[in-house]
Specification:
Radius of gyration of chain B: 27 Å
Oligomer: heterodimer
Strand content of chain A: 15-25%
Number of strands of chain B: 20
Number of strands of chain A: 6
CATH topology of the largest domain in chain B: Rossmann fold
Distance between the termini of chain A: 25 Å
Number of domains of chain B: 4
Structural class of chain B: alpha/beta
CATH superfamily of the largest domain in chain B: Thiamin diphosphate (ThDP)-binding fold, Pyr/PP domains
Shape of chain B: globular
Strand order of the largest sheet of chain B: 3-2-4-5-7-6
Number of helices of chain A: 6
Order of helices and strands of chain A: EHEEEHEEHHHH
CATH class of the largest domain in chain B: Alpha Beta
Largest interface: A-B, 43 and 47 residues
CATH architecture of chain A: 3-Layer(aba) Sandwich
Shape of chain A: globular
Largest sheet of chain A: 6 strands, mixed
Radius of gyration of chain A: 14 Å
Strand content of chain B: 15-25%
């Protein structure tokens, strides 16, 4: 199994954390992993994108039009980075507006749970429940337990679980 | 071997700990910042005794590492590419004098550039200094190259550079890790004035010896580039690449069906380029393509006019070699079909801006309000983003703002006494890095401007590394605190005040007072320390009063707050033609009510959560 994934959002939304989770999940499954991330000034609220490639690649980068799936932490990110995903690929978007993508209102769910910080985990849970990613919920839960810091571990798991259970919307 | 997911910079940090380095010095800068941080973590994990430090600047970091190496112990210094400009002085001479214990110089380049003021190629700098340089293509390889570099350094008593780029530093990969090597060496500095003092009379010999070392390294078989052999009809063709350009090229050759059909070389050590390899390529192939970032370092060493590369402009002579660019060049170079090009439209994303609640925003607002016609030299850090709302007019290199301010002053003052107010802004870490000599110089040469030191008690842009004034060292232990006001006073400044920029009226008054001081007969440089911790500092944030901010019906949609204050939490509702507060991102700093001319923004003190 090989998969090329892009994660798009604003600096501070947890794009890097999702990148790490996916990379660790690849490792847990014995796959070769390569990611590429945005650090530095762009992280100050600017639009950022991470690339994740699992299953034996050499280059950390994904070209426009060749990602197999994309996670978009805000709807506007899909206008900026949506074309990274190939025509047959999955686009999973945090929004309450329907469109040609899978979507779930992760922000509202996260706010109900008392922390917008888990928006990314709700979206990730939703994406995994809809079989758009290379790993399953069991593997991801273990990874969340492993790399979350003590303060956020419980909340992260709850956010992820909520994402798994949400119905969301289809294309 | 145990595998771990490591960021490129973590792999480098791990490599330093595994190879028995006993000192690692650095100054934070994207894309190099995580190298030292991760070395601290791995050192703690394996209980390796390593002195780690955030030095005040890269020149100092280099010299600390150099001194350590003189005793026979292994050391490392890490920085971003423009950091090497600062460290150029010790770097150049260290090639002549050499080292004892291995010294690896990690310089992270930023082709693109993504987060830098130039896209210079440090391999070129290494060649300039005649220092060997490794060019890793991924995190796992970067770690291996750290060890190879240290071995090479010790064998030839030369500093050796490892030059990762952003795409290696900020890539994550499964990396094999082994237990750290424990090298017990007693510090032993052997006096040798002819070498360690090296007055000019000794340098001709040292220069000759340096050249001999480089010649030998250029003939070593273990640095012969790795060949992915081509079988087929393309015997006249070859592709040479290094660094992440190799990784991108490999994957695209594979996709195009040319991997294994054309000879494809991977260069680990771009300088000195193996001499047998140069000969082999120049005589063995008619069509040669070179992919490297960012300057033609390999290409030039071939000294072959027929090569397709950055000099011939078959490869653009600037910028990052993205997979898209490599693909289009490969399709032209190889007998591959060129598809109908669909120009991907790049849509610009949201630009970065200062965080909601950032104290710098308040300082910049106050500066611009007080001196609408002022000139505002600034510097490198988060606060460069003050350019978004007209409060930053220049940004050059670390510490330049103070001296540029002096230069501007002397130009205007020569034309008459009615010179514009010059307000220079510099961050606390940048002030330590390169601001102190500049301030001494400005005071000494009678410049007149206001210097606002934006003291948020951290190096925010690069991930909140502590400064000497915070008093915490890289390993988390207490250091000896050095206070900015003491330094300012010692520089001869006669006007020094400190205030919290959140209190806009007080801060604006202070700026006006500082301007009056500058213009007095016996005036000079006035310094204001704008003191408020970075809101990314969780501890400090908890102690901050929080307000519930709202916009009432008085908002007339004038957008002054958006243009002059530019807080991401102030959002314009295009339908209602009014501003509203994005409560998701607003941290309730309480500054913006003072900004609204209509008095439409209200602040209500919130109960403190415990």
């Amino acid at each position: 199994m090989k998969q090329r994934i892009v994660i798009s959002g604003r600096g501070g939304q947890g794009v890097l954390f999702v990148t790490r989770l996916l990379a660790e999940a690849g490792l847990a499954l014995g796959m070769d992993v390569l990611t590429s991330e945005t650090h530095g000034m762009a992280m100050r609220g600017g639009t950022v994108i991470s690339h994740v490639k699992v299953g034996g690649f050499k280059s950390p980068l994904i070209r426009r039009g060749s990602a197999d799936m994309g996670l978009f932490l805000t709807l506007s990110d899909i206008t900026i980075h949506g074309d990274f995903v190939n025509t047959a690929g999955y686009r999973v978007v945090n929004t309450n507006l329907s469109g040609e993508y899978l979507f779930v209102d992760a922000t509202t769910e996260a706010r109900e749970m008392g922390s917008l910080l888990v928006t990314n985990l709700v979206l990730l849970g939703y994406a995994i429940a809809h079989r758009t990613l290379f790993c399953d919920a069991m593997v991801m839960k273990k990874v969340i337990e492993k790399i979350s810091n003590n303060r956020n571990r419980e909340l992260n798991l709850v956010g992820f679980q909520r994402g798994l259970e949400l119905k969301g919307g289809q294309q | 071997m145990e595998q771990r997911i490591l960021l490129g910079n973590e792999a480098i940090g791990r490599g330093l700990v595994e190879s028995g380095c006993t000192l690692i010095a650095s100054y934070p800068g994207t894309p190099a910042s995580e190298i030292l941080e991760s070395a601290v973590v791995f050192a703690k994990e394996s209980r390796a005794k390593i002195h780690t430090e955030w030095s005040v600047n890269e020149k100092i970091a280099y010299e600390v590492a150099l001194g350590h190496s003189y005793t026979g112990k292994r050391s490392a210094v890490a920085m971003k590419q423009v950091g090497l400009n600062v460290a150029a002085d010790p770097f150049m001479r260290s090639a002549y004098l050499g080292v004892k214990g291995g010294l690896v110089v990690i310089v992270a380049d930023d082709p693109g550039p993504h987060s830098s003021q130039t896209e210079q190629d440090s391999r070129y700098f290494a060649q300039f200094a005649r220092i060997p340089v490794f060019d890793p293509s991924d995190p796992a390889e970067a770690k291996v190259m750290i060890e190879r570099a240290l071995d090479l350094s010790e064998t030839y008593e030369l500093p050796v550079m490892v030059r990762p780029t952003t795409r290696v530093c900020h890539a994550r990969q499964n990396v094999p890790c082994r237990a750290p090597q424990e090298i017990y060496r007693k510090a032993e500095f052997k006096k040798n004035p002819g070498r360690w003092v090296a007055t000019p009379q000794f340098l001709t010999t040292l220069h000759r010896e340096l050249n001999e070392k480089v010649d030998i390294i250029g003939s070593l078989k273990n640095f012969l580039p790795f060949l992915t052999k081509g079988k087929g009809a393309l015997a006249e063709y070859c592709i040479v690449s290094s660094g992440v350009a190799y990784a991108n090229t490999y994957e695209i050759l594979d996709e195009l069906g040319f991997l294994g059909k054309v000879d494809f070389f991977k260069v680990d050590l771009p300088y000195p380029l193996n001499r047998d390899f140069i000969q082999k390529v120049n005589t063995g192939y008619k069509k040669i393509l070179v992919f490297e970032e960012t300057y033609p370092v390999i290409e030039m060493q071939f000294a072959n006019q027929s090569i397709c590369g950055r000099i011939s402009k078959d490869v653009p002579d600037y910028g990052e070699l993205t997979p898209e660019i490599i693909e289009s060049i490969l399709r032209k170079f190889l007998p591959a079909p060129v598809p109908e090009k669909q120009e991907a439209k790049e849509i610009k994303g949201v630009r970065p801006s200062l965080c909601p609640g950032c104290p710098h925003r308040a300082s910049f607002y106050a500066i611009r309000q007080t001196f609408p016609k002022g000139i505002f030299p600034s510097d490198i850090g988060c606060y460069t983003l003050g350019m978004n709302f007209g409060a930053v007019d220049t940004c050059h290199c670390m510490g330049a703002c103070i001296s540029q301010g002096a230069g501007l002053y002397h130009a205007y003052a020569a034309d008459g006494p009615d010179y514009p107010t010059i307000v220079v802004t510099i961050g606390d870490s940048t002030f330590f890095h390169a601001g102190i000599p500049a301030l001494v110089n400005a005071v000494f040469t009678k410049a007149r401007f206001i210097l606002v030191i934006l003291d948020n008690s951290t190096t925010a842009m690069t991930g909140n590394q502590p400064t000497p004034q915070v008093g915490i060292m890289a390993d988390g232990c207490a250091g000896n605190t050095v206070f900015i006001p003491d330094l300012v006073k010692a520089s001869g400044v006669k006007f020094l005040r400190q205030a919290d920029p959140y209190d806009l009226p007080v801060f604006q008054n202070l700026l006006a007072e500082a301007d009056r001081f500058c213009r007095k007969d016996d005036g000079g440089v006035a310094v204001i320390i704008a003191k408020h911790p970075c809101i990314m500092n969780g501890q400090a944030r908890k102690q901050q009063v929080v307000y519930r901010i709202q916009v009432n019906e008085e908002c007339n949609g004038c957008k002054v707050c958006l243009k002059r204050f530019e807080c991401p939490s102030l959002v314009f509702d295009e339908n209602k033609k009014k501003v509203f507060i994005d409560q998701n991102s607003c941290i309730g700093c309480g500054v913006c009510p003072s900004v609204c001319p209509a008095g439409a923004i209200t602040a209500e003190k919130m109960e403190v959560e415990t």
